[in-house]
Amino acid sequence: MSQRTTKRTIVVLSIFIGVVIGLVLASNFNLAQNGFADSESENEFTHQSQTVPQVSSDLESASRAFVAIAKRVTPAVVSITSEKVVKVKEPLSNFFHNDDFFRRFFRQPNGDQEYKQRGLGSGVIVSFDGYILTNYHVIKDADEISVMLDKKPYDAKIIGTDPATDIAVIKIDAKDLPAVVLGNSEKLEVGEWVLAIGSPFDLRLQHTVTSGIISGMGRTLNLSGELTYQDFIQTDAAINPGNSGGALVNIKGELIGINTAIYAGNSGGNIGIGFAVPIGLAKKVMDDLIAHGEVVRGYLGVYITTPDDELSEALKIDDNKGAVVTEVVAGTPADKAGLKKYDVIVSVEGKKIDGSQELTNLIASYLPGQSVHLSVIRDGSTRDIVVVLEKRGSPDSPAPQISRKDEMTEKIGLELSDVTSELADRFELDDTEGVLVTDVRSNSVAEEKGLRTGDLIVEVDRKEVKSVREVRGIVERFEPGQIALFQVRRGRGNHFIALKVPK
């Protein structure tokens, strides 16, 4: 190799080594640099992590509000355990009567057997000195009531109960207790956020807090014959067995309802349909129970029903609103004021009435001795009637119904019978003036409109009936599509049922 070639090779190697050293220094000794796309992704990621907005301040505020409400209200929500002694007859007592030989042979103890039945519910402290609001069914028939507060049990006494609203007031001997602030249930709106607090299923789950919204207002339920006054708040906040008597509170932490019932279908637990007594109704009951030991309500003295399409047509009213008078009880304020059967009460003191339940609730909100102005539709004309209310007594319980079959009226799907002494005894009828419904044919118009076995038909088309022949004679005169108006006595109450005669 010539000297010139050797010198050229040394120069090239020097340049190559310099370039390599420069690359190493430039990469800060990182010999596995990312490619361009990766570098761009990293820069993009870094940029995004710096510019993604923080969680909405409104949502965070709502979350913190829930936390604050739970902290404030939970101490005022208590668990209530009840205990009652239940007596059960020995299984063979009716068969062996008092035969000592058989008792010894089958080792049957003498007398009834007793066992203790325990229940769990919730309650809400409403005063610093120990008054607690809960449901009547939580402490119904209880021999002993215990309230769990701060893991300490307190014996409680019953101040008063009101089965008609399922509200009760109990009291514990304690001072300086945490108490809830009462809200205004009159201003509630569907869609508002609410929290339910109580002790579902087990004492280990006390102070469970669930959230939801108000799903509906003014709901009525078929819960029991005792529950007369209904105006429930519906919510999807989880309510389960044991939550009864607990608190339903609004976003301000104010008590707006007493959790009372659930619609559970076949599950037995929460499916998102729960009900609470509004605090406006519960507070009036509570105040009366504390002051008087009972609830003082105005009494009108009528049996009423809500009109449907057929009844509205039969009574010649424009819509299905109001409360139709099916019976006026003799000697009551309604009777003295001149209310009559078939009157439709459409307003009280200017407040419009949508249905019979609303009228029942509204009249009960007035005191005995108060005068109320009723707007009434009678035979298509509107008139004003002033009624002086009296004190309401305990409602009579409906008589049990028994089923029996006999003849059938083809047009409307009824089996009817003239009332005999035997049928009167069998169906426990207090009144024998009328025609007895002994069966209702399946899928008939009578079944669809709610006629029942044991109903006593006393009028058809406003004419009194005392025999099957009279009922048939009237019904046969109706053309298909016309409305036949029945007055039916069921238990101790009267009902109007309007049937469209089928083709």
Task: Provide structural commentary.
This protein is of the alpha+beta class and 503 residues long. The protein folds into 3 domains: 77-108 and 116-292, Thrombin, subunit H; 298-391, PDZ domain (Pdz3 Domain), CATH 2.30.42.10; 414-500, Pdz3 Domain (Roll), CATH 2.30.42.10. Helix content is 25%, strand content 33%. It has 13 helices and 27 strands. The chain has a 6-stranded antiparallel β-barrel. The chain has a 6-stranded antiparallel barrel with strand order 8-9-10-13-12-11. It starts with a helix and ends with a strand. Mean pLDDT is 79; it is low at 29-49 and 394-408.
Give a quick set of tags describing it.
alpha+beta; Thrombin, subunit H; six-stranded antiparallel barrel; 503 residues; Pdz3 Domain
Q: Secondary-structure blueprint of this entry?
A:
Layout: H1 3-26, H2 36-51, H3 57-73, E1 77-88, H4 93-96, H5 100-105, E2 113-125, E3 131-135, H6 136-139, E4 144-149, E5 152-162, E6 167-172, E7 181-182, E8 193-198, E9 208-219, E10 232-235, E11 247-249, E12 254-262, E13 274-278, H7 279-292, E14 298-299, E15 302-305, H8 309-315, E16 323-328, H9 333-337, E17 344-348, E18 351-352, H10 356-364, E19 371-378, E20 381-388, E21 390-391, E22 414-418, H11 421-426, E23 435-440, H12 445-448, E24 456-460, E25 463-464, H13 468-475, E26 483-490, E27 493-500
Specify the overall morphology: globular
Count of the separate structural domains: 3
Low-pLDDT stretches are 29-49, 394-408
Q: Count the helices. How many?
A: 13
Query: How far is it from the N-terminal to the C-terminal residue, by CA?
Result: 125 Å
Structural class: alpha+beta
Q: Return the CATH topology of the largest domain.
A: Thrombin, subunit H
Reported CATH architecture of the largest domain: Beta Barrel
Number of strands: 27
The fraction of residues in strands falls at 25-35%
For the sheet with most strands, the description reads:
6 strands, antiparallel, barrel
The CATH class of the largest domain is Mainly Beta
